C-alpha cells in the first residue's frame, strides 16, 4: 500500500460526531477506513473502587452516574444485586413502580438517541423534537423523584417513595400524547424521509453470528431477526405480568436498529399502560432496618437486565460487611466500543463513522467507569 | 433445553469442579481448578453457551489469590453460568481466552489495567483505560485511593481566601 | 487624546461586541453534557441570548467544562484550551469541577479546575439544571461586558503557576507554542 495515500486521524474525544468523551483513532485510504482503534478511558472515575469505599446505601447515589443516558438501569441492577445476595423480597407494588420507571427511562433514552442519530446525519429538526419530547418525560421524573436526570429512586428493597395516583394519570396522558401527536410527527420527519433511509440503510451492518460471538445484545442482535430480550428470557420486576412483543429487524443495519428503537418505545407505552391499570396497593419498600447499617451475608451474584442497548450486568461480591467487597460493571456497549471498533469499523467510509458509532449506541462512561 | 440441574450434571460428567451451586432461578455458579477452566469454557461454548457477558476479577489479598469469574449465557437454556477459578496473586498469570472469544482480549486488558493480572497469549499490554499509571494497579485491595488522593491533589481552602491570589 | 483613553474605549467596544455573541465549544467532558441539548434546543433555547455551539476549538470563545475531569481528559482539555484564540473564557460546570464533588476520593479525577485553567465562574449542582446554566451564562455575558472576564490574561500572567500545576498531575505536557 502506498504510504502517501494513507493517513491517520484522531476522531474525538473533542468532536461533535463522537458519542461522548471518547475517541477513535483510525487510518484511512481515499475515504475508506482501513484500520481503527478505540481510544477509551477519558471518563474513568474509578467507580468500582469508590463503591468499595462507601456503605451500601451511599452507593445508590453513585451508580446512576455510570451511564448518563440510562441512569435508572444502574440503580435497578445495583438494587437487584443487593437483593439477590441478601435474598430480600421486594413488595409487589415496588416491582410495578420499578417497571414503570424503567420503561419511562427506556422511552427517554430511545427518543434522545434517535435525536442524536438524526443529528449525526444532519436532520436537526428531529434532534430538536427528540430533545423536547424527552423533556416531557423528565418533567414526569421530576414529579415522581424530584430530579431531572439522576433520580436515586430505585434502591435496595424497593423504591424511595410512592407514586401518587394523579401522577399515574399524568403518565397515561403523556403516553397518549406521545402516541398520538409526537410519534406521528417523528414518523413523517424521519422514518418516511428518503434521505434518512438512504443514509442508514445498509450501514454499520453487524450480523447475528458476529453479534453473538462478541456478546452484543439488544438492538444490535435484534436487528437480525432474533427476538432476544432479558425482560422475556429472565423476567425481573413486574415484566412477567405484562404482555408485549420484542421488535426485530431483518438486515442488521443502522436503519433496522433505529426502527427497533421506535417500535420499542411503542411497546414501552403498551407496557406502561398495562402496569398502571394493574398496579396493586401496598408498601413500596421492604423493611431492611437502618439504612446506614445495611448488611447482607457473604456471597456473590451476577445480575443483569435489559437496557435500551442490551444486557447491563453487575457482578457483586459481599463479604458480610457494611460495604460491598467488589462491584464489577458490564455496560451494554462494552464489546462494541472496544472490540467492535477494531473489527467492524474498517471498510466504513469516513462520512459514515458518526453514523456507525451513534447507531450502535456506544456509551463510553459504562466501559470507562 | 437443559435446566439448572442438568447443567450441573453435565459439568460433573466432564470435569472435576470444586464447587457447584444453583444460586437462584436461571443462575448457576461453578468453581474450577485453574488447569480446567479454559477447557471448560470451550466445552460450554460448544454446548450453546455462546454469549460471554464479561470477565470479572476479585482480589483476595488474605488468601493471596485473585479470583477470575467468567459469565456465560445460553440463548437455548436461558441460564447464566459463572465459572470461577483462583490464581496466585503473585505472579498473577493466567491463560487467555482470546482464542475462544476474540472479544475476551479487551476484558483481559481491562483486568490487566486494574489488577495487573497478565494473560499468557494476550501480549498487548498497552494501557486500555488508564493513562501513565505509575502506582500499583488501582483495583487491588492494597491500593488506598484516599491516601493517594490526599498525596496527589490539593483540597480547596474554604476560609474565604482564594488560593490563586 | 492620550493613548490609554483610546485603548480603554476600544476595549469597551470590544467587550460590548464580545458579550453579544459567544461560541461555545462542543466538548462533552463529563456527564453534565446531557443537560446541554435541552439548553440548546427549543425548550430553553440559549441561542436567543446569542450563545451557540461551535465545532472546533479555534472558532470557540467559551470552554464549558461539563463535569468531572479525569487526568486523561485534562490533558486533552489543556490542548484544547491552548488551541483556542483569545479572548477565551472557561466556565466550570457541576460540583465536581469545584471541589471534586462526589468523586472527591477518586484517584483519577482532578479536584479543583481553577488550579489548571483560569476559570471565570462556576455553575454549581450535580448536575445543574438548564435554568441554572442559562443564568450562569447570562452572568458570564455581564462579566464580559464589564471587562471582568480576564481569564486568558491571568493565564498568560501566571503561565508558570498553571504549567507547574498541570505538570504535577499529568507529568509531561506537550505545548503548542
UniProtKB/TrEMBL annotation, chain A:
Annotated family: Belongs to the complex I 49 kDa subunit family.
The UniProt record lists the keyword Metal-binding: no
Top-level lineage group: Bacteria
Protein's name according to its UniProt entry: Membrane bound protein complex subunit mbxL
Keyword line: NAD, Quinone, Translocase, Transport
Any single Pfam family the record assigns to this protein: Complex1_49kDa
GO-annotated molecular function: NAD binding; oxidoreductase activity, acting on NAD(P)H; quinone binding
NADH-quinone oxidoreductase subunit D domain mapped to chain residues: 121-369
Automatic annotation (TrEMBL), chain B:
GO MF terms, alphabetically ordered: NADH dehydrogenase (ubiquinone) activity
InterPro entries reported for this sequence: NADH_quin_OxRdtase_su_C/D-like (IPR037232), NADH_UbQ_OxRdtase_30kDa_su (IPR001268)
Domain NADH:ubiquinone oxidoreductase 30kDa subunit intervals: 31-148
SUPFAM superfamilies: Nqo5-like
Family stated for the protein in its record: Belongs to the complex I 30 kDa subunit family.
Entry-linked PANTHER family: NADH DEHYDROGENASE [UBIQUINONE] IRON-SULFUR PROTEIN 3, MITOCHONDRIAL (PTHR10884:SF14), NADH DEHYDROGENASE UBIQUINONE IRON-SULFUR PROTEIN 3 (PTHR10884)
Protein name as it appears in the record: NADH-quinone oxidoreductase subunit C
Species this chain originates from: Halanaerobium kushneri
Lineage: Bacteria, Bacillati, Bacillota, Clostridia, Halanaerobiales
Automatic annotation (TrEMBL), chain C:
Domain named NADH:ubiquinone oxidoreductase-like 20kDa subunit: residues: 28-140
Pfam (any one): Oxidored_q6
Superkingdom of the source species: Bacteria
Keyword 4Fe-4S in annotation: yes
Gene Ontology MF annotations: 4 iron, 4 sulfur cluster binding; metal ion binding; NADH dehydrogenase (ubiquinone) activity; quinone binding
A GO-annotated cellular component: respiratory chain complex I
Keywords for this protein: 4Fe-4S, Iron, Iron-sulfur, Metal-binding, NAD, Quinone
TM helices/strands, residue ranges: none
Coiled-coil intervals, chain numbering: none
Gene Ontology process terms (BP): aerobic respiration; electron transport coupled proton transport
Family from the record: Belongs to the complex I 20 kDa subunit family.
UniProt-recorded name of the protein: Membrane bound protein complex subunit mbxJ /NADH dehydrogenase subunit B
Amino acid at each position: 500500500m502506498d504510504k502517501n495515500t494513507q493517513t491517520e486521524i484522531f476522531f474525538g474525544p473533542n468532536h461533535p460526531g463522537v458519542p461522548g468523551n471518547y475517541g477513535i483513532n483510525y487510518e484511512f485510504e481515499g475515504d475508506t477506513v482501513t484500520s481503527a482503534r478505540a481510544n477509551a478511558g477519558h471518563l474513568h472515575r474509578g467507580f468500582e473502587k469508590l463503591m468499595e469505599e462507601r456503605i451500601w446505601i451511599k452507593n445508590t447515589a453513585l451508580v446512576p452516574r455510570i451511564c448518563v443516558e440510562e441512569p435508572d438501569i444502574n440503580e435497578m441492577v445495583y438494587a437487584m444485586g443487593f437483593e439477590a445476595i441478601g435474598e430480600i423480597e421486594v413488595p409487589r407494588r415496588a416491582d410495578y413502580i420499578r417497571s414503570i420507571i424503567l420503561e419511562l427511562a427506556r422511552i427517554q433514552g430511545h427518543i434522545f438517541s434517535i435525536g442524536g442519530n438524526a443529528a449525526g446525519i444532519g436532520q436537526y429538526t428531529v434532534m430538536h423534537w427528540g430533545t423536547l419530547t424527552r423533556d416531557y418525560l423528565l418533567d414526569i421524573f421530576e414529579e415522581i423523584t424530584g430530579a431531572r436526570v439522576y433520580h436515586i429512586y430505585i434502591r435496595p428493597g424497593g423504591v424511595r417513595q410512592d407514586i401518587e395516583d394523579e401522577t399515574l394519570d399524568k403518565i397515561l396522558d403523556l403516553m397518549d400524547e406521545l402516541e398520538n401527536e409526537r410519534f406521528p410527527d417523528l414518523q413523517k420527519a424521519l422514518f418516511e424521509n428518503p434521505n434518512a433511509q438512504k443514509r442508514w440503510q445498509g450501514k454499520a451492518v453487524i450480523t447475528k453470528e458476529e453479534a453473538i460471538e462478541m456478546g452484543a445484545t439488544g438492538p444490535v442482535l435484534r436487528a437480525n431477526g432474533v427476538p432476544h430480550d432479558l425482560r422475556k428470557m429472565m423476567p425481573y420486576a413486574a415484566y412477567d405480568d405484562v404482555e408485549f412483543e420484542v421488535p426485530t429487524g431483518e438486515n442488521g443495519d443502522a436503519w433496522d436498529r433505529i426502527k427497533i428503537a421506535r417500535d420499542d418505545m411503542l411497546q414501552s407505552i403498551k407496557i406502561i399502560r398495562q402496569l398502571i391499570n394493574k398496579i396493586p396497593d401496598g408498601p413500596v419498600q421492604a423493611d431492611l432496618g437502618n439504612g446506614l447499617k445495611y448488611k447482607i451475608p457473604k456471597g456473590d451474584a451476577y445480575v443483569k437486565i435489559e437496557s435500551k442497548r442490551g444486557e447491563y450486568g453487575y457482578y457483586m461480591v459481599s463479604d458480610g460487611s457494611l460495604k460491598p467487597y467488589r462491584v464489577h460493571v458490564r455496560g451494554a456497549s462494552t464489546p462494541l466500543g472496544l472490540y467492535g471498533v477494531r473489527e467492524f469499523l474498517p471498510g466504513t467510509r469516513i462520512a459514515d463513522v458518526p453514523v456507525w458509532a451513534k447507531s450502535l449506541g456506544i456509551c463510553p462512561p459504562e466501559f470507562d467507569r | 433445553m437443559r435446566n439448572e440441574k442438568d447443567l450441573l450434571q453435565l459439568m460433573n460428567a466432564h470435569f472435576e469442579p470444586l464447587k457447584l451451586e444453583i444460586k437462584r432461578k436461571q443462575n448457576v455458579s461453578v468453581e474450577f481448578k485453574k488447569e480446567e477452566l479454559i477447557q471448560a469454557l470451550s466445552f460450554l461454548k460448544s454446548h450453546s453457551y455462546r454469549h460471554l457477558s464479561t470477565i470479572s476479577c476479585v482480589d483476595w489479598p488474605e488468601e493471596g489469590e485473585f479470583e477470575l469469574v467468567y459469565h456465560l449465557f445460553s440463548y437455548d437454556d436461558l441460564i447464566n453460568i459463572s465459572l470461577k477459578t483462583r490464581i496466585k496473586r503473585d505472579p498473577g498469570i493466567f491463560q487467555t481466552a482470546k482464542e475462544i472469544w476474540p472479544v475476551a482480549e479487551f476484558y483481559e486488558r481491562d483486568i490487566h489495567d486494574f489488577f495487573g493480572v497478565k494473560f499468557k497469549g494476550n501480549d498487548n499490554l498497552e494501557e486500555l483505560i488508564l493513562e501513565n499509571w505509575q502506582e500499583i494497579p488501582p483495583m487491588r485491595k492494597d491500593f488506598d485511593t484516599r491516601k493517594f488522593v490526599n498525596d496527589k491533589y490539593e483540597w480547596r481552602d474554604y476560609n474565604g481566601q482564594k488560593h490563586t491570589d | 487624546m492620550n493613548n490609554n483613553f483610546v485603548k480603554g474605549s476600544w476595549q469597551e467596544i470590544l467587550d460590548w461586541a464580545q458579550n453579544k455573541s459567544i461560541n461555545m465549544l462542543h466538548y462533552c467532558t463529563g456527564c453534565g453534557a446531557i443537560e446541554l441539548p435541552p439548553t440548546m434546543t427549543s425548550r430553553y433555547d440559549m441561542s436567543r441570548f446569542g450563545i451557540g455551539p461551535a465545532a472546533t476549538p479555534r472558532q470557540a470563545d467559551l470552554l464549558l467544562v461539563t463535569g468531572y475531569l479525569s487526568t486523561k481528559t485534562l490533558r486533552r482539555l489543556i490542548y484544547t484550551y491552548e488551541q483556542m484564540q483569545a479572548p477565551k473564557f472557561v466556565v466550570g460546570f457541576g460540583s465536581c469541577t469545584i471541589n471534586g464533588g462526589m468523586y472527591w476520593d477518586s484517584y483519577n479525577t482532578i479536584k479543583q479546575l481553577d488550579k489548571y485553567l483560569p476559570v471565570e465562574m462556576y455553575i454549581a449542582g450535580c448536575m445543574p439544571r438548564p435554568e441554572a446554566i442559562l443564568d450562569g451564562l447570562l452572568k458570564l455575558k455581564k462579566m464580559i461586558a464589564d471587562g471582568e472576564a480576564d481569564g486568558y490574561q491571568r493565564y498568560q500572567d501566571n503561565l508558570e503557576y498553571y504549567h507547574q500545576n498541570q505538570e504535577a498531575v499529568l507529568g509531561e505536557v506537550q505545548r503548542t507554542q
